[in-house]
């Protein structure tokens, strides 16, 4: 089958083996995959991954133990737990020590015509959600994870740092709480997508507000964290949404003296994301920068790596 | 009056001016002061402080606007707010941007025969608390701050890193919650103080447990934080109790991937500390390593800086 394969370097292949599903898994035919910053980090060596990257997708079930699933359109949670450890039994397979992660760690991912995933990871989509919207379920769920972890409401002043793909999703999700929100970024054309939804924005170089109750760092940069500590109020909360390639120098004394709470945040609730798309709570199509066929996948990855580019989609059909 | 004065170097003086109390302040005659690690850091340049250090004390009110306070024995909260900002009005003077801090920032402290402090900062002591116990109210309150910030109960596995003065207080406070507690340190004679109270301890080099719900870093070292991240469970909480002199290299990706919550923790509730001493919940006198007169204050500071030494007290009377 056709696939993008990374083994230190990225290649397009049309002879990659069809994945075999194990018991409990479904075989899925991928319709569209989305390129995430994590995929770009993987090409730079993140997680020492080799295989097929890609973890944002919409697909059709080709085969599963439960035949009624065949032909259904689905998205899938990306963490595959061992199923027997304490975390898996508590429903926290995202934190299983022996987990594999679709397209990120020891499991071939979505930049291919087919993938396999445990049936319990799948969410069947309502017809009212388009394929292109469905590709955003995974990153949108990650955005909703912030609201699962901390309380944000109308009384709070919140700042989102970063106007990348994840920042724009996090901003929309946080805007839904009715809080006072300011989004700080570097790209006027990205911030304008949020302004169209009534969200206040600032260009980073013009921004000098302080005293936020909550700051969400979606910059994916080394400096995001220190900016966040500069602008959060004493006893406020800083949420870290993005991994970065190298270790950061952090002023831990500031965290102690100002009694700041720092919260790491990763994968989130798919059901909440699907419901938000179904009800029109978020606007996703303005975030699509380009569409490619998998045959042009290498070009698609290059495009996605360019500064200022938002979501790049890969279509698996010819 | 007699005082230890720091202006880049520490000197003992017997001609330091008697502090004048402003309106709303009390003049206090110090009986005993305790030496904290922060005082040692101040001698190394922390906070660029100059003046009289010292912020742990028990004293007698000499003079105040309310004459009924005169002669009463008191301890005092160390943060002096501006009184008019939002934080002060919310009762969070500990986080006032314009605060001074007794013996730490722009306010002469307790290594002197007399100090002044706003009356609202004072807590009059019950007779059943001894002077030497009372000197521990301030650091014990800082230990209780952990329980003000996060929920710890019998279902939790908690690890305290560090067997210094603060670590031993934090350990006793956390032990009172009924949680499963392990304290990790480097000094057998310090850990034995805790074992006498039924608290489990480990020497750091023998310690390899992981998966704690909560880890409290009281090491005051650069490596405490990374050890804490190593042994906390996914979605667990790391509490930072100590400031360190320089910035740390921290693996922020770990915080994101494991969705760890990091909580900075500083000054705490005096009333809770006083009550814990009054009811015998904590044992403090085993933590006293040495007693000096203020006349030998420089020697006292040197002693307190030695490895393995716990609380060093300074008596102000001849």
Q: What is the strand and helix layout of this fold?
A:
The structure is a homodimer of 318-residue chains.
Chain A: E1 3-6, E2 10-13, E3 25-34, H1 37-43, E4 56-63, E5 73-76, E6 79-80, H2 86-89, E7 100-101, E8 114-118, E9 122-124, H3 131-134, H4 137-149, E10 157-161, H5 165-175, E11 180-185, H6 188-195, E12 200-203, E13 212-217, H7 222-231, E14 232-240, E15 248-250, H8 252-257, E16 261-264, H9 270-278, E17 288-293, H10 297-305, E18 311-315
Parallel strand pairs in A: 10-11, 10-13, 11-12, 13-14, 14-16, 17-18
Antiparallel strand pairs in A: 1-2, 3-4, 3-8, 3-18, 4-5, 5-9, 6-7
Give the beta-strand count of chain A: 18
This entry's quaternary arrangement is homodimer
State Rg of chain A. 19 Å
Assign a percent range to the helix content of chain A: 25-40%
Distance between the termini of chain A: 12 Å
- Strand pairing plus helix content of chain A: what structural class? alpha/beta
Low-confidence stretches of chain A: none
Largest sheet of chain A: 7 strands, mixed
H/E order of the elements of chain A?
EEEHEEEHEEEHHEHEHEEHEEHEHEHE
- Name the pair of protein chains with the most residues at their interface, and give those residue counts: A-B, 33 and 33 residues
Overall mean confidence score, pLDDT of chain A: 95
Bulk shape of chain A: globular
């Amino acid at each position: 089958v056709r696939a993008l394969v990374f083994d230190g370097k990225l290649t397009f292949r049309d002879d990659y083996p069809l994945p075999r599903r194990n018991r409990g898994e479904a075989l899925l035919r991928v319709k569209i995959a989305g390129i995430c910053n994590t995929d770009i980090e993987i090409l730079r060596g993140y997680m020492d991954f080799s295989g097929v990257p890609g973890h944002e997708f919409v697909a059709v079930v080709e085969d599963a133990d439960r035949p009624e699933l065949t032909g259904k359109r689905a998205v899938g949670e990306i963490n595959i737990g061992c199923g027997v450890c304490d975390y898996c039994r508590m429903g926290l397979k995202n934190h299983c020590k022996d987990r594999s992660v679709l397209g990120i760690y020891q499991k071939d991912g979505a930049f291919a015509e087919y993938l396999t995933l445990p049936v319990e990871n799948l969410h069947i989509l309502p017809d009212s959600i388009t394929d292109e919207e469905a590709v955003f379920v995974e990153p949108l769920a990650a955005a909703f994870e912030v609201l699962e972890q901390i309380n944000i409401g109308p009384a709070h002043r919140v700042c989102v740092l970063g106007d990348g793909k994840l920042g724009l999703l996090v901003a929309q999700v946080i805007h839904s709480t009715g809080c006072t929100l300011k989004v700080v970024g570097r790209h006027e054309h990205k911030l304008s997508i949020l302004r169209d939804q009534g969200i206040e924005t600032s260009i980073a170089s013009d921004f000098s507000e302080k005293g936020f109750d909550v700051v969400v760092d979606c910059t994916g940069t080394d400096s995001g964290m220190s900016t966040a500590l500069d602008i959060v109020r004493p006893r406020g909360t800083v949420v870290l949404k993005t991994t970065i390639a190298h270790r950061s120098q952090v002023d831990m004394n500031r965290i102690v003296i100002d009694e700041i709470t720092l919260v790491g945040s990763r994968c989130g609730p798919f059901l909440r994301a699907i419901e938000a798309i179904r009800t029109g709570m978020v606007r996703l199509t303005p975030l699509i920068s380009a569409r490619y066929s998998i045959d042009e996948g290498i070009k698609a990855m290059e495009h996605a790596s360019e500064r200022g580019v938002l979501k790049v989609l890969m279509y698996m059909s010819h």
